[in-house]
Amino acid sequence: MNDLQQEIRELAREKKAIILAHNYQPPEIQDVADLTGDSLELSLKASETDAEVIVFCGVRFMAETAAIVCPDKLVVFPRLEAGCEMADMITVEDVEALKAKYPGAPVVTYVNSYVEIKAVSDICCTSANSVNVVKSLDAKEIIFLPDMNLARYTQRFFPDKKIHYHEGFCPFHDILTVEDVEKARREHPEAVFMAHPECRPEVIDLADVVRSTSGMLRYARESEAREFIVGTEVGLLYPLKKQNPDKEFFPASEKMLCKAMKIISLEDLKRSLETLSPVVKIPEDVRQKAYRAVARMLEIPRN
Ligand code: 13P
Ligand code: SF4
To answer: Which among 44, 150, 154, 195 has most CB atoms closer than 10 A?
Structure first.
């Protein structure tokens, strides 16, 4: 660890803070965090920790999820402007319109959404548990938002259900094409192709495995394969290589880079720990409604 990272660790101890970082965060942030993980692991950790302060390094919807499950803790998010282009693609009016179109259908909302959307949803899901979440519902018709790619991936597991979806998407996963994958496969013919469920259906069709970010980390650790083409945001290359120094990892496309995930710097993190700001604030009535949907998800067993 460099001097700045050591100062951050010291400040975290002093302030009784836990630093959570998403798997796409820059390497120097991941290295200084108490825990790195996918959206589900980070939500679970936030709901279980006894630290007084959670400093969240990721994008705003993730910090909001921590604030939703931990109303008695201070959730510090170093750069409030780090949003998510997929979360920006849906409004409460869009959700109300879907509810009016499919009355009675439960609303399953990907955690990659803002708190106002979660507040008008029945249950949340992440890319690691969308299938288990839909399985937990008796309904034959389901409304799924905001990611149409995760919705269509989840639909594959339920021939007897109809998943209606909002047409949002992650620009940094949806950008991956069949041509990109074919090119990567030509260059690395022995490699396993891992795709994130936020990728387009025709890309999913080419995948050897489809996993959340932490699912990919687990798969790469446990697999006998030596080479992997990584079909998710390029930030995941860092923990993949760190955990598997004897294996090789190739991005499916260099275009898969989420700028919002790279905004928080070590300097921002240090300043946030010193000042315990900026804090994620959610009106209590909205938080309580969103809490129901997140808590219902957290009760569902993992595979
Ligand atoms: P997971 O880490 O939960 O797979 O999420 C991917 C993502 O796009 C987060 O923004
Ligand atoms: Fe949002 Fe996509 Fe960035 Fe994840 S990778 S934060 S879904 S824009």
So the answer is: 150
Contact yes or no for 45/69 (Cβ under 8 A): no
Could you tell me the CA-to-CA distances from 39 to 16, 25, 110, 258 in Å, in that order? 23, 12, 10, 15
Distance (Å, whole) CA 294 – CA 243? 30
**Cα–Cα distance for residue pair 96/236, rounded to 1 Å:** 35
When the candidates are 3.10.310.10, 3.40.50.300, 3.40.50.10800, 3.60.20.10, the CATH number that belongs to 87-168+288-298 is: 3.40.50.10800
Ligand 1 atom with least separation from CA of 172: 8
Domain boundaries, the chain: 3-83+261-281, 87-168+288-298, 176-255
Tens-digit pLDDT profile for residues 69-96: 999 999 999 999 999 999 999 999 999 9
Query: How many helices (H) and strands (E) would you count in the chain?
Result: 15, 12
Order the strands of the 123-125 sheet from edge to edge: 123-125, 107-110, 141-145, 162-165
- Contacts with 228 (C-beta within 8 Å, 6 or more apart), sequence order: 191, 192, 193, 194, 220, 240, 247, 248, 249, 250
The sheet with strand 227-231 has its strands ordered as 209-210, 192-195, 227-231, 248-251
Shortest-distance atom of ligand 2 to CA 170:
2
State the residue for tokens 């950008």: 175
CATH architecture designation of domain 3-83+261-281: 3-Layer(aba) Sandwich (3.40)
The pTM score is 0.96
Q: Is 126 in the pocket of ligand 1 (CB under 6 A)?
A: yes
Query: Distance, CA 183 to ligand 1 centroid (Å)?
Result: 25
Tell me the pLDDT tens digit for each residue of 209-219: 999 999 999 99
Question: Does the Cβ of 121 fall within 6 Å of ligand 1?
Answer: no
